[in-house]
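ok new one. same drill as before - structure tokens go in, u give me an amino acid for every spot. 242 of them this time. try not to just spam alanines like last time pls lmao
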């Protein structure tokens, strides 16, 4: 018989096993995102024409054509169209926010992670460390590869508690943080092939092409290094066997 896990805002019992915990967006937060943000967008769509009319009379107004367009709705259907446009834009932002957070399913033997463009499953025996790097959850294997790295909605203390509960080696910080160095293209610190992959990865970061970022991270690790970023700046370190 499946045992019921204690209710938690960020964790709930998985229906198919008695020992699994799922970490993901709680239903209340999903509703808030999918309803609240689009409604805010609709309100902004209604207010923008009013605000734009207040500034179109300024003699020195940058991007005047944009403000004149925003100030143009007068007919009812035009006002409704602006509100609907704001609602749709808000809905898009809400789906982006949901898609960028990982869903993590944990048992004592395995961790499974689902993101928008990739999935990963790692046996507990293959995990050497789990920690938070800012808002990102990181899981390292025994070769110090980042087999999982991605943003998560839950508070760090809740994530730590769940991983510890299932017997994973939680760390309060990155055990290899001191090994990271800032990547400088063409500095000669790395082999040309590694430098080339990191250059491609930086372009993927600028485009926010997360699938490409994930694939290029794996390519870097195949060459004996791993990488993390702050904004579009990249930091690399050699892989270390634990």
């Amino acid at each position: 018989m499946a045992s019921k896990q204690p209710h938690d805002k960020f964790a709930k019992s998985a229906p198919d096993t008695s020992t699994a915990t799922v970490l993901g967006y709680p239903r209340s937060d999903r509703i808030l995102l999918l309803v609240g943000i689009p409604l805010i967008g609709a309100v902004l769509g209604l207010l923008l024409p009013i605000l734009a009319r207040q500034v179109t009379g300024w003699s020195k107004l940058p991007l005047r054509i944009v403000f004149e367009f925003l100030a143009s709705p007068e007919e009812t259907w035009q006002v409704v169209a602006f509100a609907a446009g704001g609602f749709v834009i808000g809905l898009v932002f809400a789906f982006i926010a949901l898609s960028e957070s990982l869903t993590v399913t944990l048992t004592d033997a395995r961790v499974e992670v689902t993101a928008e463009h990739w999935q990963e499953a790692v046996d507990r025996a293959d995990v050497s460390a789990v920690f938070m790097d800012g808002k990102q959850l990181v899981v390292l294997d025994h070769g110090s590869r980042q087999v999982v790295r991605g943003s998560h909605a839950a508070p760090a203390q809740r994530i730590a508690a769940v991983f510890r509960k299932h017997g994973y080696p939680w760390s309060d910080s990155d055990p290899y943080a001191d090994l990271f160095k800032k990547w400088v293209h063409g500095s000669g610190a790395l082999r040309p092939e590694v430098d080339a992959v990191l250059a491609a990865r930086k372009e993927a970061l600028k485009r926010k092409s997360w699938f490409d970022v994930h694939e290029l991270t794996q390519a870097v690790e195949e060459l004996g290094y791993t990488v993390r970023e702050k904004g579009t700046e990249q930091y690399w370190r050699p892989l270390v066997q634990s």
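The chain has a mean pLDDT of 82. and btw The radius of gyration is 23 Å.
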